[in-house]
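Today's session is about reading a structure prediction critically. Students often jump straight to the picture, but the first step is always the sequence itself: look for stretches that repeat, for charged clusters, for runs of hydrophobic residues. Only then move on to the predicted structure, which in these notes is written as discrete structure tokens rather than atom positions. Here is the chain we will use throughout the hour.
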Amino acid sequence: MALIVVMLAVVFQASVLPVHIASPFKPDLLLIVTVYLALRGSFAAGAPLSWGLGAVKDVFSGLYLGLNAFSFLLIFLVIKNISDRLYTESAPLFVITVGVATLSCVFINLLLLVMFTTSPGIAYSMSVGLVPHLLVNAFVASLVPLIPGFDRPLENP
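Below is the predicted structure for this chain, in token form.
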């Protein structure tokens, strides 16, 4: 079931959403899946999958290859280390975590682009759509707990 959800998220992120929704209002479904994997999944399956989801986003977004892959992996590692100490079955915690992960992803991408490229005005162009992107991600993350099976962990105890 989890593999089907991941494949649907990739298809929607890569083909359906870019055609029907304007850029700052597109939810980042792959980041939301990465946060879900960090809160519910195992480390062995989640780390390569989060890197792979970031690489898929890089391929379809047209940015530098590896930028989102690194960001998603870093976000996964931080959330996974913190999630072992939290009650991760809470829906509000999931929404808050997706919001923080969205801000972190933008900040990490901005930091890497400033360090390794000479793109003038990159900070302005990334910050213009930050608030709508954050709100849309939080809204979609608030719908995820309505999916049956949200309260079950992905790994077997």
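Discussion point for the tutorial: Helices lie at 2-20, 29-40, 43-61, 67-83, 91-116, 122-128, 130-143.
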